[in-house]
Amino acid sequence: MTAGISVIGLTKTYGDHTVLDDLHLTFEAGKIHGLLGANGTGKTTLMSLMSRHTFPTRGSVLLDDREFGEDPRQAQRLCFIRENQLYNDAFKVRDVLRIAPTFYPTWDAATTTRLVDRFRLPPATVVKKLSRGQRSALAIVLALGSRADFTFLDEPYLGLDPGARETFYEELIRSYGAQPRTIIMSTHLVDEAAPLLEEVVVLNQGRVALQAPLDEAESLGLTINGSAVALDGWLRDHTSHQELTRRTLGPTATVTTLGPLTEAARQAAETARLRVSPTSLQGLVAALGNSNHEAA
């Protein structure tokens, strides 16, 4: 088993704008990781840095505990097809599929053929004339066909209808089951994609807001509703629950907090006549995006 990807003090700036700010992360090998957060939080930039499509301002990325570039074969173990991937203007789908295996020694021709058929990709069509959904399907074919040790999927569902997205999820699990590897996928369809994920990282304003196993992340978000006075008292008494978002209507307030909820805290909420319910992972990601919370 490989060591995975280590991100150490990673910072990326463009002029005066800081996209990523001193990130420290570990993506454990052999798992499917969800990279979550609002638009503009740095998800694509982070994947570009980890796959060496761009270079950091400060910090480093280790692949299996080695700096990128120490071994020229590292590039063959990475596959990152960007959401806005550029191709030669004259290339047809079949040209891309003919050339791609030269970059990946682990290329799986059988998977590629099956996916082209399932997504009904037209081999004779020039890539730049493909629809948004067809371009996404082509990116999925390349990413899964590569069988690269480290595979990055940047919002791979864009333009795909629900049936095609279901095909993608099914094929992702099939490919991963046949060859477990490290897959990092950014997505805004959080609850839809959650059954595929084992670990999640949430970015907010270029920083890590949360990194946790999926089951832990799904249990952390809480929505608490009731008297604003009682709710404020409960929050003062339970400082481990950081208020992420708040909505107020007259004397009533609804707050999203970061848990977990202890039995004592639950009983205190019940005594204060506060209603506590779990927040979906999608709701938690949205709440983190509207707060200043950073992972410890």
Automatic annotation (TrEMBL):
Matches recorded under CDD domains: ABC_DR_subfamily_A
InterPro entries: AAA+_ATPase (IPR003593), ABC_transporter-like_ATP-bd (IPR003439), P-loop_NTPase (IPR027417)
ABC transporter domain residues: 5-230
Gene3D superfamilies xref list: P-loop containing nucleotide triphosphate hydrolases
Swiss-Prot/TrEMBL keywords: ATP-binding, Nucleotide-binding
Annotated GO MF terms: ATP binding; ATP hydrolysis activity
Alphabetized Pfam families for the sequence: ABC_tran
PANTHER family linked to this entry: ABC TRANSPORTER, ATP-BINDING PROTEIN (PTHR43158:SF5), SKFA PEPTIDE EXPORT ATP-BINDING PROTEIN SKFE (PTHR43158)
Identification of the protein by name: Putative ABC transporter ATP-binding protein
Organism: Nostocoides jenkinsii Ben 74
